[in-house]
Design a protein that fits this description.
There is one protein chain. By secondary structure, the protein is α+β, with helices and mostly antiparallel strands. It has a single domain, classed as Immunoglobulin-like (Sandwich). It contains 3 helices and 9 strands; from the N terminus they run αααβββββββββ. Strands 1, 3, 5, 6, 8 and 9 form a 6-stranded mixed sheet that branches. A hairpin with a 2-residue loop joins β8 and β9.
Length: 144
């Protein structure tokens, strides 16, 4: 019995180590920022350029802000990361994605929106940042 327990403990420890690494990479201060500028500062984002190469698919009108589907695709070669912001939400950084080399910079997610507002997407490519936005009208807010 002791041998089996030891093996099981080693296996579990091996499985939990990657989870600890993921948790360590979580950028808690960026998600705790109360403004977009505060979150961007924590994420070291600088001087975004507007571009049409970021496609944001979201409804023009969302009846319920608690569940708004957002689809984002970056057509900028070398996209490394993508952040989605909703300025009027209590926590403006809604999502932050990092892409491995060769991964397609495309995400579909559901977000909460406190009220009608522009969604802003910022993409990181090397040392440069690009942005696009889309306005979504919300009839019933989803953040409380």
């Amino acid at each position: 019995m002791t041998g089996r327990r030891s093996i099981l403990q080693v296996l579990l420890a091996g499985l939990l180590l990657p989870l600890k690494a993921i948790a360590a990479s979580w950028n808690t201060p960026a998600f705790e920022a109360r403004t977009i500028d505060g979150a961007k500062q924590v994420l070291n984002m600088r001087a975004e350029e507007n571009t049409a190469q970021i496609e944001i698919v979201a409804p023009d009108f969302a009846e319920n802000g608690a569940v708004v589907q957002v689809e984002v695709m970056s057509r900028i070669a070398g996209t490394e990361a993508m952040a989605i912001f909703a300025e009027k939400n209590p926590v403006p950084l809604v999502a932050n994605f990092t892409f491995s080399h060769g991964a397609q910079p495309y995400v579909i997610t559901r977000i909460k929106m406190a009220e009608s507002q522009s969604l802003q997407v910022v993409v990181k490519v090397g040392e440069r940042y690009y942005q696009a936005s889309r306005y979504v009208t919300v009839s019933e807010g989803g953040c409380g």
